[in-house]
Amino acid sequence: MIFNNHLPITKQVDKRILRRIFRMVGRYLNQNNSPDTLVLNYLDPDEMRKKIDLKINNEGMDNEWLIKALRKYLKYSVRTTHRNFSNQLFSAFNFPSFVGEIIATLTNTTMATYEAAPVATLIEQELIDKMNHLIGFKTADNTADGIMVPGGSYANLMGLICARYQAMPETKDKGINGIRFRAFVSDQAHYSFKKMMNVIGMGTESLTEIPANEKGCMKTDLLEKAIEQSLKKGETPFFIGATAGTTVYGSFDPFREIAAIAKKYNLWLHIDGAWGGTLLLYKNKKKQKLLDGIELADSFTWDAHKMMGVPLYASFFLSKHDGLMLKCNAVQGADYLFHSTENTTLDTGPKSLQCGRHVDALKVWLAWKFYGDQGYSDMINDLYSKVNYLKKTITKNPWFELMTDPQYFNVCFRIVHPRSSIDMNDMNMEIRDRLLHSGSYFTNYSVLQNGTVFFRLIVNPTSTKSDYRDFLNKLISTTESILKEKYLPDHSAHIFETAEDK
Ligand SMILES: *Cc1c(COP(=O)(O)O)cnc(C)c1O
């Protein structure tokens, strides 16, 4: 096998290296199943700099270095496919999508035109059709639209751009020109909306965050009030962003009610289903109620790189309005790229904000086609059974307090102690940091507005109920150690009784 070198110079990559790298990959994946493998080797940045020779020199390096560098990279990177990784909304990826990512790189191309990416273009179209059908955007009477984008944040940006164009098409060429646009999301919505309000020139202050109820769902009466107020001030409301699966609690907004308000005020309704979109694949009527009314929206964000187990990124922007994306994004001056040939209607470049666009579709398609709808439904069923296990165990145990009844795969809870002299916010943070620094567990936390710190555990496909039991026990034993060390050195014998008496 000959490895074509990119640089026409004397330095050759030894072809046997590929076999060694594949062996290394196999070992790495196997290690995740061993109980001795840490989820990360935590080092602070100064120590890490000492481990890795970062500087690029004049002469370059040899073949052996390449192997060593990769080994080190793997050693000090976080194992997001590890059972004890539940820090992010993505975790383990599946094999078909993993090889899909490798093959996409092997055939390295851009999604700009059908010419340049014939198979991938059709694959992407098929995925978009399937998703639009599931959402209810694509029907017998409606051809819908969509595009893959680098991340859910970016998909939310696409929603804002389409909404602005729909409200005032002249803003595409003239800019917002002093128009005081206003957008609405809940205070549990993803922060990307705020960032993207900056990007589209309306400013972060033109986004109103509507309070959510104790379950994390938008309060629709307050939404309507806020729209009325905005109109009274002479502003131009144009966008409501609802969320299917909020980032912290995993909550679903009441879409049908919000859609009625969007209709009444003629506003674009975007649903951010970056996290919760995958629930559409669950064949369970009761849970599908969480998504009731989504077909009434104008656009939708869906990240396959979260719960569908596809490597980052694999995000979709889906729209009910076929052709609108093209109208609001196409510009003159790209004739060198977009030729008028018979297949130009399949070119995705003109409606995209990117020029070069990575082939993200292959990995999603390989995985979905391989497992089928049923495979994903079964996976979600298994995830819910683990959520229920955690919920039951946490509710029963006096050391823990559940923050909210989980709707999705976010289990939010905190460690409690009856003694008011113990700062449980510090305590929860310290427990989390100790587990992280020891490399045993990598779980996230969040903070309520009143300062309450809590764990946000994302239930993942690779962890078992017994892994979660071990984790909860580890939390308790770590709490006990901290109590002994810092708070109650003389009362160690009574601590546990106190907690259990509660
Ligand atoms: C993760 C997430 C996003 C951001 O998606 P990225 O792909 O990380 O850019 C947006 N909205 C919600 C609700 C999310 O959970």
Average pLDDT for all residues? 92
| Ligand kinds | pyridoxal-5'-phosphate
Overall geometric form: globular
Q: Strand sequence of the main sheet, in spatial order?
A: 2-8-7-6-5-3-4
**How many strands appear in the DSSP assignment?**
12
Terminal residue distance: 68 Å
Please identify the structural class as seen in this structure: alpha/beta
Count up the helices. Answer: 16
Order of helices and strands: HHHEHHEHHEHEHEHEHEEHHEEHEEHH
Provide the low-confidence segments as ranges.
493-502
Largest sheet: 7 strands, mixed
Mind telling me the C-alpha Rg? 25 Å
Query: Helical percent range?
Result: 40-55%
Strand content: 5-15%
Question: Secondary-structure map with pairings?
Answer:
Elements: H1 17-31, H2 45-51, H3 63-76, E1 85-86, H4 95-106, H5 118-135, E2 145-149, H6 152-167, H7 171-174, E3 181-186, H8 192-199, E4 207-210, H9 220-232, E5 236-243, H10 255-265, E6 268-273, H11 285-288, E7 299-303, E8 315-319, H12 324-329, H13 361-396, E9 400-402, E10 410-415, H14 424-437, E11 442-447, E12 453-458, H15 465-487, H16 492-501
Helix pairs in contact: 1-3, 4-13, 5-13, 6-8, 9-10, 13-15, 14-15
Bound molecules: pyridoxal-5'-phosphate (PLP).
The site of pyridoxal-5'-phosphate has 16 residues, from helix 6.
